[in-house]
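hiii, so i know i said id send this last week but things got crazy w the move. better late than never?? heres the sequnce for the chain we talked about at the cafe, plus the structure i predicted for it. fair warning i was half asleep when i ran it
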Amino acid sequence: MSARRWISALASTVLTAGLGTAAVTATATSAAAIPPESHCGTEASGSGSNGFVNHDQLTSALQQLETSTGGTVDVDVAGYSNQGREIHIARVGEGDKIVFVQTQIHGNEMHGTEAALELLKRWGSDSPAARELRENVTVVVIPRLNVDGGELDQRQNAMTWDDVVADFPQLEGVAPAWNYNTRVGGFDVNRDFNPDLDYVPAPEDFPGTSADTGWYIAPEAQTSRDVYKALEEEFGTVDYFVDLHNQWSCYATDDLENMSPLSISAKFIDNPAEFGDWPKFDMNASKRANVAVYQALQGRGESGFGDLTLYPQDTNLPGTALGSYQLRGSAAVLFETSSQTQYDGMKRNGMLTQQIETGLGGLVNAVADGSIDALDESVYDTIPQRVYLPAD
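okay and structure toks below
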């Protein structure tokens, strides 16, 4: 079966509900074997990002969720984007273990936001399982960090270098940060992080490179940092940090037997010691967290969810949220869902959203019941590597 036919076989799971909070009921079709010469198309479904929640709809959905749960899901504003939009935060549970989840740091990577709304609804419900979970874990979610990029359907935020200099006058005359995109007038926010949460931008640290730490010049990154810092003050260590992303649409498992709808990773930095002394850094904890996600998806039988792969393990990006927070002691998990709105529109939205719900839900369950501590981190190294399939 070609990649195009595989995509078509999953089309029945597409969701177009305006608020994105309808229950996902469709069963994903199992991915079939794909020879390496198969076509992998990027023909968008025609709806672009219109089927995903926009900022106003997200705000309304969160307010409704807080009301319907009687405040069990506590919603607040954590900060504001460069264009003045609210960056929302939702919190559920009162357990001693903390899971911090962040979605849509890249504005055109939208499936995590849809999944977060569904999971918050589940975790905030009055079911016995939800009540027990809330006793054992606290989950904090930023359901859309890059709210301006989300409205513009672009990777970057909406901020010029002049805006940065206005906020940080000491950078007058300095070359713009390497992650600034002059064409769209915005920054890749996920290169703006630093393990030093008190770092102040210094002229000598610009323009920097992808192998350097970031600066917290973007208000979106500052908001994430401030949430993380507050959680550290409350809990001591932020036990788990999860960042929900999207990647190129066309990847296969390393045996080329199946398409891979998701890649995960625990590895973000080559040499942690290069960036100082971080005694809480624990790669094995990150691996166990990824194994929890992997096993939750493997447990879905013939759904196709089990064909997840490892994101490239030669990644060295200390300026990412994952890299910086991992250095501080968080077990870190990257989700890379195989879809982009500019290529796929709403294709497979239901299936792709549901796989995030399954994987992230499995991780939170494992944290809540303590089973994550008994997982074998060596399983992480057996997860298949992803293989790039070019479009033709």
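btw The first helix runs from residue 3 to 9. thought thatd interest u
miss u guys!!
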